[in-house]
Design a protein that fits this description.
Elements: E1 3-6, H1 10-21, E2 27-30, E3 42-44, E4 50-52, H2 63-73, E5 77-81, E6 84-88, E7 91-94, H3 106-117, H4 129-154, H5 175-184, E8 196-200, H6 206-213, E9 220-221, E10 226-230, E11 235-238, E12 243-245, E13 248-251, H7 255-261, H8 267-274, E14 277-289, E15 298-300, E16 310-313, E17 330-339, H9 350-360, H10 366-369, E18 372-386, H11 391-404, E19 407-409, H12 423-439, H13 444-447
Parallel strand pairs: 1-2, 1-13, 2-9, 6-15, 13-19
Antiparallel strand pairs: 3-4, 5-8, 6-7, 10-11, 11-12, 14-17, 14-18, 15-16, 16-17
The structure holds flavin-adenine dinucleotide (FAD).
């Protein structure tokens, strides 16, 4: 059986590595760009600052993935304590926001508490994400943080999103704990799966995936952009004129694009693919001459005094993210802004509006603004696969059709499941689908049963 893989992001590389580990020979990976890593790649700009495509933090759900990371980096990583904060009303609130509202000005704190004490409704029956928020956080927290922040990140009306994806992704509420934190002035920051994280010493997050790919690079064909898929004859055509036959195909490119490139797709499948919703992202890297003593890792910005929803103190992740590895002379801020048809953003102005936003939000002083030495913009048309209310029904139609044609679509935009769309999940979707193809094993990550 000849297996072809489309896309050399974490998912395609997970599949490839697993095929290599199993000792299989009849497979090949094709990638559009001239490098591996996909959305998890990194770049060095002309001023020697390293940038990721937005703040990437390794969550660790799987021993298999951890082992691949450790093998790829061969000990050359730093281990960091997660430290994330929310910026609003000229105040810093440790994340998770609801557990630390004692940092808010009194009026806002009172409103948040009032909302929490007046909670009504059952989150399990909320019809969408927006209404789920009301039942879990109450009016004050929704108004100050949840609603404006999520509007900024997702860039779609929140009532069009489902609540089923939430799981461990949003820290929920324990009123007694919050009241105790306020009374005893406790900073309660130990939530979630990512309390510590590894980061490569050199080369940014992308070093993980170039390290993984190095072991089978003769099997990766770069600069191969998919142009057409003939499902009936199982042939792929690439823009560079190459054609390839497959028996089984693992797709990791965005599912809606993949379906558009397939010949002879039933109307209901095409229609389902067109119903999938995503947003885009503008990642702005700002490299500054100067020292920044601030231990925060990443920060959330719900307010509209800045375009971005998140900023990473990227110099804190590795000193080699700045020129000469000299964090006493340089620092780097990586800022993420969402765009979508509901939330248009001017690409030509985003660097300047980001810098102004950093000043407005108290992240950059006027004198630091004068010492900006690098401005780096990355535009990613596919940033977040949005879990809309109709998503699962659309995916069921598409996947039934594709799998009957021996095509398995996996990964962040291949599967279109945000809740299992991080690096570790995407990588493991690639690993697990190989087992599924070869042995019929279940795919816990793709099925959401991890
Ligand atoms: C802003 C942002 C922040 C993130 N933060 C985190 C984080 O903190 N932690 C975390 O774990 N994850 C994070 N992620 C998610 C992480 O980037 C993804 O999980 C991961 O890159 C998905 O891997 P993938 O292989 O499924 O898809 P991708 O990385 O999208 O790879 C798909 C590959 O397919 C290729 N391709 C596309 N079209 C074609 C074509 N026509 N022909 C051939 N090849 C094609 C692409 O070039 C790409 O290399 C973040 C993502 C974003 C956008």
């Amino acid at each position: 059986m000849k297996i072809l893989i489309l896309g050399a992001g974490p998912c395609g590389l997970g599949a490839a590595r697993h095929l290599r580990k199993l000792g299989l020979e009849n497979w090949q990976l094709f990638e559009r760009s001239g490098h591996v890593g996909g959305l998890s790649a990194s770049f060095v700009d002309s001023h020697s600052f390293t940038w990721d495509i937005g703040g990437h933090v390794l969550f660790s759900h799987y021993d298999y993935f951890d082992q691949a990371v450790e093998e790829a980096l061969d000990g050359a990583w730093y281990e960091h304590q997660r430290e994330s904060w929310v910026r609003l009303i000229d105040t810093w609130v440790p994340y998770p926001f609801q557990n630390n509202i004692r940092h808010l000005p009194q009026d806002a704190l009172d409103k948040c508490l009032e909302g929490l004490r007046a909670l009504t409704g059952d989150p399990r029956t909320a019809p969408n994400f927006r209404e789920w928020m009301d039942t879990v956080f109450g009016a004050g927290i929704v108004r100050h943080f949840m609603e404006p922040y999520n509007r900024k990140v997702w860039g779609v009306p929140l009532h069009e999103m489902s609540r089923e994806w939430i799981g461990e992704r949003v820290s929920v509420v324990d009123l007694a704990r919050i009241e105790r934190n306020i009374a005893e002035k406790i900073d309660d920051v130990n939530w979630g799966p990512n309390n510590t994280f590894k980061f490569p010493q050199r080369g940014g997050t992308g070093a993980i995936f170039s390290g993984i790919a190095r072991r089978f690079q003769e099997r990766i064909s770069l600069n191969h952009e998919l142009a057409e898929v003939d499902l009936a004859t199982r042939r792929l055509a690439f823009l560079n004129g190459r054609h390839e036959h497959y028996d089984t195909l693992i797709n990791t490119i965005p599912l809606d694009i993949f379906i558009e490139l397939c010949r002879d797709v039933p109307d209901k499948v095409r229609k389902a693919a067109r119903n999938l919703v995503h947003n885009g992202g503008l990642i702005v890297g700002i490299g500054v001459e100067g020292e920044r003593r601030d231990s925060k890792c990443w920060m959330y910005f719900p307010e509209d005094n800045c375009p971005f929803y998140r900023v990473t103190n990227f110099h804190n992740y590795s000193l080699w993210n700045v020129p000469d590895g000299d964090t006493s002379r340089f620092f780097s801020l990586m800022c993420e802004t969402t765009y979508s048809p509901h939330k248009p953003v001017c690409r030509e102005e985003i660097v300047e509006t980001t810098i102004q936003g950093l000043v407005n939000a108290g992240m950059l002083s006027e004198s630091e603004r004068e010492r900006i030495v690098s401005r780096y913009l990355i535009d990613i048309p596919y940033s977040y696969p949005v879990p809309t209310v109709g998503r699962d029904a659309a995916l069921a139609v598409i996947n039934t059709f594709l799998e009957s044609n021996r095509v398995y679509s996996r990964g962040r935009f291949g599967a279109w499941k945000y809740e299992v769309g991080n690096m570790d999940h995407s990588f493991m979707q690639g690993v697990e689908v190989v087992d599924r193809i070869l042995t019929g094993a279940e795919e816990p990550t793709f099925l959401g049963s991890i």
